[in-house]
Amino acid sequence: MKLLQEKIIQEGKVLSPSVLKVDSFLNHQIDPQLMKEIGHEFANRFSDQVITKVLTIESSGIAPSVMLGLEIGAPVVFARKRKSLTLSDNLYSSKVHSFTKNETNEISVSHSFIGADDNVLIVDDFLANGEAVKGLLDIAAQAGANVVGVGIVIEKGFQDGGKLLREQGVRIESLAIVDSLEDGKVTFATGEEK
Ligand code: 5GP
């Protein structure tokens, strides 16, 4: 997605050869217009599928997911990283190790919001080692839901998650695939110009 690539080039900050900071439009401040385009693009890429729920993880997956949900008329469910008084019983849970925070969270979704009748599209902001997506796939499996695919805003193609998940037969659509962050420079996968 060309607009997204341009935004990454203009505003992304390479923190290390493996971490890209996009706080100005996705992870802290949010660019609503870009999120709208992203929602539209996900809807186009999965237009061959009937989707009853968008499943994501708090917090940075929520903005693109809501825009997609609006576009396709489906509710958005976000897995929560912390339990609370209002979220305690009847939960599907899975452990997710965070690549950027180096901590393991137990993510949870209430039984009320995902079930065996659902056709789920999983969405997240980044794909690195695939831990977050694996956790969401696990939750969908516990609920007996069908997963139609995974939509990712930025995939880091030099980390293993995308390869491992695709080898397992998971359909992944990534709107930008970063090939390298070496020398403080963002390089996109060839053929990604869209
Ligand atoms: P994974 O679970 O695939 O290893 O990593 C994906 C999760 O870690 C995403 O939910 C995202 O929040 C975070 N993440 C991984 N790599 C990056 C990165 O380079 N930049 C940012 N901002 N977040 C990342």
The name of the CATH architecture is 3-Layer(aba) Sandwich
* Residue runs with pLDDT of under 50 for 5 or more positions: none
Topology as H/E string?
A: HEEHHEHEEEEHEHEE
The major pleated sheet works out as:
6 strands, mixed
Which whole number gives the mean pLDDT? Answer: 95
CATH class category name: Alpha Beta
What is the oligomeric state here?
single chain
* CATH fold field value: Rossmann fold
Helix and strand content put the structural class at alpha/beta
Strand content: 25-35%
Bound molecules: guanosine-5'-monophosphate
- Tally of distinct domains: 1
Helix content: 25-40%
Distance between the termini: 5 Å
Radius of gyration: 16 Å
The strand order across the widest sheet is 4-3-7-8-9-10
Q: Using DSSP, what is the number of strands?
A: 10
The total of helices stands at 6
Global outline:
globular
Write the layout of secondary structure elements.
Blueprint lengths: L1 H10 L1 E4 L2 E3 L1 H5 L4 H14 L7 E5 L4 H11 L3 E4 L11 E7 L6 E7 L8 E9 L3 H13 L2 E11 L4 H7 L4 E9 L6 E2 L6
Parallel strand pairs: 3-4, 3-7, 7-8, 8-9
Antiparallel strand pairs: 1-2, 5-6, 9-10
Helix pairs in contact: 3-4
The structure holds guanosine-5'-monophosphate (5GP).
Describe the structure.
Helix 3 crosses helix 4. The protein has a single domain, classed as 3-Layer(aba) Sandwich (Rossmann fold). The chain is α/β, with parallel strands linked by helices. It is built from six helices and ten strands.
